[in-house]
Amino acid sequence: MAAGAPELRTASATYRVFLLSPADCSGRRALLLRKPDPGHDLGRRLQGDAGAAVGEVFAFVSSLYFRGKLAYARAFARPPEGVAGIHVITPCDGLVSPEAPLRARDLERYGRVPVDVSEPRYRRPLVRHLEALAPTWVETEVVLLGSVASPKYVQLLTAVLGDRVAFPSDFVGRGDMSRGGLMLRCVDEGRELAYVPLVGAVRHGPRPARLPPAKAKTPR
Fold it and tell me: CA-CA distances (angstroms) from residue 218 to 65, 110, 138, 165, 215?
């Protein structure tokens, strides 16, 4: 590691919570769920009064990437007692639980708001929730599972949390699907990634080599 670069952190932190970046709520798969007759169970539940869980909906919309983020966060979150270990960033509702109900009208509303620091409908609720939660994270490392190449998450998170917020160093240079596959493999292997603080980190880099084929699981 270059001189002056942030030191890598491993799984040694006492407490760790995860922030998951949102799925693209305006894309083809989101539009499929919003159809009046989506033709499958998730879409029908999303259209109903009770809705469907945010995590389940975003995993469908984003496929491998969000599925990997959610599985990884569930495997490795270590929150303080009484504190949630996983929060999902949304386009205009700040932070929500992955179990929070989402309805078709909410998904449509999300699809109309750009995830951009210049957009107040995105920025204001996220900052408000971060400021409310920050006192509960005094001794906690907050890990972003999302893109670090643009300021859309980095700028707001570091403005509130400073060097308490980190990200997996192996994310640099990887595309979304590669990150998703990496996290699912880590869950299967029980292996937590190393993290580096967002403040001062190198957030751009060459694309790493493809992940080697996963080892076949031994039948039980």
Answer: 25, 42, 42, 37, 9
